[in-house]
Amino acid sequence: MAQYNRMNVLQIIRMEGPINKAEIAKRANLSIPTVMKITDEILEKKVVHVVGKGESNGGKRPELLSITDSIYYIVGIDIGRSRTSVLIMDLKGTVISRRTMKTGRTNPAEKLMERVLELTENVVLDGGISRENLLGIGVVTPGLIDLEEGRVLYSPDFGWENVDILSPVKEKFKLPVLLDNSNKAIAMGEKWFGIARDSSYFVCVNIGHGIGSAIMENGELYRGNSGSSGEIGHITLEPNGSLCECGNKGCLEALASGKAIAREGRRAVQEGASALILEKAGYDLDAIDAKEVFAAAEEGDVAARQIIKKAETYIGIGLASYINLLDPDMLVLAGGLTNAGREFIDQIKKVAKERQMKFAGRKVKIRVAELGEQAAAIGAASMILKRFIENGDEILKMR
Ligand SMILES: [Zn+2]
User: Fold this and answer.
1) What pTM was computed for the model?
2) How far is the CA of 191 from the centre of ligand 1 (A)?
3) How far is ligand 1, taken at its centre, from the CA of residue 231, in Å?
4) Percent of the chain's residues with pLDDT above 70
5) Ligand 1: distance of its center to the CA of 244 in Å?
6) Residue 357 near residue 350 (C-beta atoms within 8 A)
7) Quick one: CATH architecture of 196-369?
8) Does the structural domain 2-67 have CATH classification 3.30.460.10?
9) Count of CB atoms situated within 10 Å of the CB of 201
10) Helix (H) or strand (E) holding 296
11) For residue 109, how far is its CA from the centre of ligand 1 (angstroms)?
């Protein structure tokens, strides 16, 4: 609870500063002595500073606090399926510099990590930030992560099993480094700097090439017993449905993800049900991606329209299940498919509403994520920020 309060106070200062302690106490629903204890701690770590004095309310003029944005910086590395992004942000979440590259070949992992480290070095140079001002590096990637050992246990996207990608980063930069899963990082980013900043219990569903999710309560990720929580993409919705990459059949991901939409688009073309999808892909069957199917649907192509409708329905059912099970205050939709347009999102929301239980999740809001394609990298950096706020001394000592 103490950590949660600290995070909450910091968020209020970040969002509303310059702000005085009495006002923080009111916003955070905490006593003034509690707020003073927290602000003394974070003032000492120079995370916040006094920017001046506010108007008097009869007594002494109160000190106004603001986040220090020029002392500590954090690096976030998002090694994605097709793209890798690296950024540096300050404690306010302002991105100072950022670079991306095609992820390309992922095996052997050491070769990929050499390129990632080079990219990171360039981002640090671009930002003109000296090493003493870096708090640490957050690294995220899809797959199952062993948080304690800092290893990728299993990554179907990259063909990795039990791979250590953290040691090269530690050796090169000699800074605190944390590794986590990208879906969890996206939720973290949206909590700290995005649409879910005021939410206390939300689920972030990443609908892109695959479908994954993360559950967050009071600023903490719900990880489950072995860390694999949130695999909404692999709930079975059709017992004999399409084969999924996980080996199962009829998973949500196999029915409604970007790759499922693309696969169905290619099938429609092969079966002669749609010529427009092929036209949208420049008459190259292999070039058909979800984007081409959406484009054809928009122009009224019947087969494309059916594929999209099926995806909307299954994703909506997935969300309704989450609402029934967890009763969150918000469902955040992230990932590439959220760029498909308002209509797609509205239909998903409509299905979720129709399929959720009558009195379940009455107040749930379904929103699109705010951080876009930077979400995972910002989330990666936020993991270091969170650790710093919880245990700043440890982070400072590790540098
Ligand atoms: Zn599956």
Assistant:
1) 0.91
2) 27
3) 9
4) 99
5) 5
6) no
7) 2-Layer Sandwich (3.30)
8) no
9) 16
10) helix 290-298
11) 25
